[in-house]
Write a structure and sequence with these properties.
The protein is mainly beta. It has five domains: about 170 residues, no CATH class; about 80 residues, Immunoglobulin-like, CATH 2.60.40; about 80 residues, Immunoglobulin-like (Sandwich), CATH 2.60.40.10; about 70 residues, Immunoglobulins (Immunoglobulin-like); about 200 residues, Porin (Beta Barrel). About 10% of the residues lie in helices and about 55% in strands.
């Protein structure tokens, strides 16, 4: 019959046999004294060991103890089943065989024994329960301490009888630890864990990346961290056995603690409207993690994590990058980018005369960005961003406009030229014209008067520029010339030559044909002149040796004539106010004298005569602008 079949039959008969066994056991034992009985109250008192109830021969040394478990193995297994022992027999036999946890001890009076095996008068072995040692003296025994199936056991084998008994048992402490990377928080720099302990007291330690250790709270806890790396959490559950053994269970888990980070830069960080900037994100997943996504302004960004960025408006902009990792952590970083408005300006006209108005127009451009502030030469300029400019003196003037908003500022400049209005022209004049003459025939006299043909004089004129094309010129000049008179009275011939002073006063309009700023200024235009001649006295001398008794003194009144003016001036160097002047006047002149104003010694009147000529004045001098 197998051991298990025998155990089945035994289990059926165990209930009825237990009462008989206890009676026989009590009959073979010496009952305890009343004092021992008080110590063992509620339990069956045992006062003697050995004799007919011993389980084996005395076990006085280690070899005897090992032999007991080897020789009576099957019977011990049967008795362990009868005692409903929850441990694994292999653990008990291994403890004895390896002599681990086996010590020699003394069993004191009053010590309780949950169960112990006995023999029924040296025959069949039985299990007695709820026993207490009530002998007068302590007995020597072997104590076996070991763990099995999650419990701690203390079993004894008295040296005198080999009766195997259970002295104490208790569950082993059990530590549990839940450490999940999901409990990592990079915002408050902590990671969470949950530890538990059953049948003991708990303690938790955390090993930091540098190898040092710190105590942590048991149960639900958040552990702060500073450095990144591997953090090992160890949860320990410990208890003391009833026999003074320290029972302990621990479990450890390691978490890779790393937090993502990033930086984002814009190059350049400040641009003008219409220009672009390159945004570069530098992501870091952190220790033990991998990048899952990199976002820039909510849009996913691929490696090498750059994006060309342009804005349609001028303003200050913030770009935000987000880094996400496979551990569920994320980090944000941002940078500023400024887009400055642009500005253009114009001056119309950009070349004016002193005191003449010009209009400066500023054209700011901010796209669809923030409103702008516009200034012109440091002064605020309101819409429509125009301003009249007047300069009272000549020169080159630069005007600057600036436009700005939160995105920055831009400025531009434009230059205008202011020219002088007045030109003074001191000149030398040369008179020339046709050699026109007229012959006058009297009753007995023939006269021939030759006009002024050649002469030299000086003049002074000035021009005031109304605008670049038009100017008013006025002035005067005085010129001396020779007038020749040929007289033929009574067949005789006489000749007289006198100087005549011609004065000219004029005013005219100059039409300038060159563009402003040209090196040579050329003009022409009409003019009106007043010509005055001095009155000469003609005292002819005989050309044939015969005396002449005639004498003429004509009175020529002044005359107003029209004509034309043409000239040019060339500055000695660019923008120099002094230059060379060359010009000419053409006049339509007639020199008239009445007959009663031309008298001869013979009392005869010469007929009235008129001398027509077209004098041309050629002028040369300097031009002085002011």
């Amino acid at each position: 019959m197998s051991r298990r079949s025998w155990l089945a039959e035994y289990a059926a008969a165990r209930t009825s046999a237990r009462s008989t066994f206890v009676l026989l056991l009590l009959a073979g034992l010496i009952l305890a004294a009343p004092a021992a009985g008080q110590l063992c109250e509620g339990a069956t008192s045992v006062t003697a060991l050995g004799g007919a109830n011993r389980f084996s021969a005395p076990v006085e040394d280690q070899e005897s103890l090992r032999a007991l478990f080897v020789n009576l193995r099957e019977e011990i297994l049967t008795l362990l089943d009868e005692a409903d022992w929850s441990g694994n027999p292999d653990d008990l036999f291994a403890a004895v065989s390896g002599w681990q946890g086996v010590t020699s001890t003394t069993f004191e009076t009053g010590q309780r024994i949950p169960w112990m095996v006995f023999r029924d008068r040296g025959q069949a072995a039985r299990v007695g329960t709820n026993l207490c040692w009530a002998g007068d003296e302590a007995f020597a025994a072997w104590e076996i301490r070991f763990t099995s199936n999650g419990r701690w056991y203390s079993m004894i084998v008295p040296e005198s009888c080999g009766n195997l008994g259970l002295l104490a048992e208790q569950p082993l402490p059990k530590a549990a630890l839940d450490l999940d990377i999901g409990g990592l928080s990079c915002s408050d720099r902590t990671f969470d864990f949950r530890s538990s302990c059953s049948d003991g007291s708990a303690s938790v330690t955390v090993e930091l990346p540098d190898g040092s250790e710190k105590a942590a709270d048991a149960g639900s806890a958040s552990f702060p961290f500073t450095a990144e790396g591997d953090y090992t959490v160890t949860a320990t559950c410990s208890a003391m056995s009833s026999r003074g053994d320290r029972l302990e269970d621990s479990t450890s888990r390691t978490i890779a603690v790393g937090c993502p980070s990033c930086s984002v830069t814009a190059a350049p960080a400040e641009v003008d409207l219409g220009e672009s900037s390159t945004l570069t994100v530098v992501p870091t997943a952190g220790y033990g993690a991998e990048l899952s996504r990199v976002l820039l302004d909510g849009r996913q960004l691929a490696s090498p994590y750059t994006r060309e960025m342009a804005h349609e408006g001028a303003d200050a902009f913030t770009h935000t990058a987000m880094v996400e990792t496979n551990t569920g952590q994320s980090a944000e970083c941002s940078t500023g980018m400024k887009v400055a408005p642009t500005v253009t300006m114009s001056i119309e006209p950009d070349r004016v005369l002193a005191g003449q108005d010009a209009v400066v127009t500023v054209a700011p451009e901010n796209g669809n960005g923030a409103p702008v502030t516009v200034t012109l030469d440091g002064q605020a300029l309101a819409e429509p961003y125009r301003r009249g400019i007047v300069h009272g003196s000549d020169g080159e003037y630069t005007h600057t406009s600036m436009v700005e908003n939160a995105g920055g500022s831009s400025e531009t400049s434009a230059t205008m030229k202011v020219d002088r209005r007045w030109t003074l022209l001191p000149t030398l004049s040369s008179l020339s014209g046709d050699d026109v003459h007229i012959s006058m025939v009297g009753p007995d006299t023939t006269n021939r008067l030759k006009a002024c043909v050649d002469g030299v004089g000086i003049g002074l004129s000035a021009e005031y520029r109304l605008s670049y094309p038009l100017g008013i010129v006025f002035g005067g000049s005085a010129t001396n010339c020779e007038v020749d008179w040929f007289l033929h009275p009574g067949g005789r011939t006489g000749y007289s030559s006198v100087d005549v002073e011609m004065k000219k006063f004029f005013v005219g309009l100059n039409v300038h044909l060159t563009r402003p700023g040209s090196r040579v200024d050329w003009w022409l235009g009409p003019l009106v002149a007043q010509l005055d001649y001095s009155s000469p006295s003609f005292l002819p001398e005989a050309m044939d040796g015969m005396p002449m008794d005639a004498s003429y003194k004509p009175e020529w009144p002044g005359e107003t004539v029209v004509g034309a003016n043409m000239g040019l001036k060339i500055p000695f160097k660019p923008d120099c106010p002094v230059g060379l002047y060359l010009g000419a006047f053409w006049l339509d002149s007639s020199m008239k004298a009445k007959s009663d104003e031309i008298l001869g010694e013979d009392g005869g009147l010469a007929p009235a005569f008129e001398l027509r000529k077209t004098p041309v004045y050629v002028n040369a001098g300097i031009a002085i602008e002011f």
